[in-house]
Amino acid sequence: MNGTAQAEILSPGAYASLQDAGRRGWRHIGVPWAGALDARLMRIANVLVGNAENTPVIECFDGGLHLAACDGPLHVAVAGHAALEVDRGAERRAAAPWRSLTLAPGDSLRIRRMEAGRIAVVAIAGLTVPRMLGSAATYTRAQLGGMDGRALAAGTRLQAAAAPGHAERVLPAAPAPETGPCTLRAVPGPQDDHFTPEALHTFFSAEYRVSPQADRMGVRLDGPALAHRGAPEIVSDATVPGSVQVPGNGLPIVLLADAQTAGGYPKIATVIGADLPRLAQCRPGDGLRFTAVSAETGEAAARERETETRRLLAAIRRLAGGLDEAALYDANLAGNAVDALNPEHTP
Amino acid sequence: MNVRVLDAGDAALTIEFGDAIDPRLLASVNALDAAISRMHAEGGLPGLIETMPTFRSLTVFFDPLATSRAALRNALEPLLAAAETVAPPAARHWRLPVCYEGEAAPDLAETARAIGRSADEVVALHSGTEYLVYMLGFLPGFPFMGDLPAALRLPRRGEPRVRVPAGSVAIATGLTAIYPWESPGGWHLLGRCPVPLFDAGRGAPALLAAGDRVRFEPVGTAEYRRLTAAIAAREIAPQHWLAADGAHETRP
């Protein structure tokens, strides 16, 4: 069947926006990439519903997202360490992330809370979002992407494909939550020579804490102030996702996908791409440290992360038709339930 | 010129020509950017994603899964020396209307006081100079332009504004700019320009490009309103604001 359906946002939760792999090629006119902060989650969620890996998804912070299927059934999947529930009429059941499920018209899916991290990604089969400058990624400061350049709000309706005919899929061994001490690898520079040796030592040894100012633009950190050698400003040059800017107050700010493309603060280091999703998942109050690595180590880490992502994508399995209705809603036993189903997977 | 290649993480490197605001540095940045574009178009830079030119440096973004910093650096090396000596390309010249009156100019009186001149003198100084677009950044389409006449140079405001209206024409230090979007901002607001600087529906979304030249043309409040309405009705195309060849050299 090739029918269409809609997903209606009943509540966006703390913050939710449509994102894809981001907008490339426009930084020279001041347009940042935007795009999913944790692209692995986007790719997993999309493959779970049978979409191409970089199809637009809903990226939501801190839970609370609530959406309903309208005008047809929806095939959806959540990637991230989220506790979910599905309402069908008066019935409310827990549901599991890392697998797809079908919402009948009128059903709704809610991200009740995050069990680890703060970002979850929701993929919807056949989700269609207009592209602007080559991408559907929402960048609200310039009203680009998403629905009319805005974050999702209650009442927003998204166009998708009607679900019948879709097979449910599952990621049998979901990635474990990254708990424990968070150490981010960072390449010194490009302006490490604007800091005192003590400041560099402090940056790469002290513990910092994620402040409440943490969003898609960047993460402000609390902790020991870093002393500049000379003025705390430079003639503006380019920033990159991961740039660690240090303004006059000495407290670092790590830039993320929506950050401005240039800045006038010295940048002591750059967090490597492989570790940015971990940073984006940090909640205000979480502690973290930085460790210095070479650019070559960062490149190797990027390749390792990609290999691991591909391994996870390749592990996604189809569930045998019709037998998983109960398992679908089996929230906390997802791993066990799936293992039990393993021998019955159809190729 | 002392060219340095700096690490900007595992997926970008920054080629720095200097650390000043200087048209000669900009010429080198733009020459290198053009040379990289040509090499990329010929397939010579696999894994290149894009470049970001600024006042004094060019940052090259690459995909570490498709190339490496070392490979890219080797490929770029021959382009670096050539970029240092190149003459700037022919510039486009723009004449943009600015309303320096009333609520469009919230910091005009204050700026005049701060530099010990009259408001009219501030307008004459600001609109009497042709500026170079050094780079676009901060916001999509936001042009950093210079250099301001020495008499107009002021530090940024002590208290940045939470909300600067779109179209605001502003100054700080040696630079002037137009805010394409409403945003927070710490510059002094001298006027308002009705011409949209960014339109994602255009093939070239940003009106201005690094290397362009811009002169401001004072217009009254009534003319500003008329232009705003005409632009909204799409009666005036962006090219309207391009000065004809040589026209920038003669002033009425």
From TrEMBL, chain A:
<dbReference type="GO" id="GO:0016787">
    <property type="term" value="F:hydrolase activity"/>
</dbReference>
<keyword id="KW-0808">Transferase</keyword>
<dbReference type="InterPro" id="IPR029000">
    <property type="entry name" value="Cyclophilin-like_dom_sf"/>
</dbReference>
<dbReference type="GO" id="GO:0005524">
    <property type="term" value="F:ATP binding"/>
</dbReference>
<dbReference type="GO" id="GO:0016740">
    <property type="term" value="F:transferase activity"/>
</dbReference>
<keyword id="KW-0378">Hydrolase</keyword>
<feature type="region of interest" description="Disordered">
    <location>
        <begin position="172"/>
        <end position="192"/>
    </location>
</feature>
<dbReference type="InterPro" id="IPR052708">
    <property type="entry name" value="PxpC"/>
</dbReference>
<feature type="domain" description="Carboxyltransferase">
    <location>
        <begin position="28"/>
        <end position="308"/>
    </location>
</feature>
<protein>
    <submittedName>
        <fullName>Biotin-dependent carboxyltransferase family protein</fullName>
    </submittedName>
</protein>
<dbReference type="InterPro" id="IPR003778">
    <property type="entry name" value="CT_A_B"/>
</dbReference>
<dbReference type="Pfam" id="PF02626">
    <property type="entry name" value="CT_A_B"/>
</dbReference>
<keyword id="KW-0067">ATP-binding</keyword>
<keyword id="KW-0547">Nucleotide-binding</keyword>
Automatic annotation (TrEMBL), chain B:
<keyword id="KW-0378">Hydrolase</keyword>
<protein>
    <submittedName>
        <fullName>5-oxoprolinase subunit PxpB</fullName>
        <ecNumber>3.5.2.9</ecNumber>
    </submittedName>
</protein>
<dbReference type="InterPro" id="IPR029000">
    <property type="entry name" value="Cyclophilin-like_dom_sf"/>
</dbReference>
<dbReference type="Pfam" id="PF02682">
    <property type="entry name" value="CT_C_D"/>
</dbReference>
<keyword id="KW-0547">Nucleotide-binding</keyword>
<feature type="domain" description="Carboxyltransferase">
    <location>
        <begin position="3"/>
        <end position="208"/>
    </location>
</feature>
<dbReference type="GO" id="GO:0017168">
    <property type="term" value="F:5-oxoprolinase (ATP-hydrolyzing) activity"/>
</dbReference>
<dbReference type="InterPro" id="IPR010016">
    <property type="entry name" value="PxpB"/>
</dbReference>
<dbReference type="InterPro" id="IPR003833">
    <property type="entry name" value="CT_C_D"/>
</dbReference>
<dbReference type="GO" id="GO:0005524">
    <property type="term" value="F:ATP binding"/>
</dbReference>
<keyword id="KW-0067">ATP-binding</keyword>
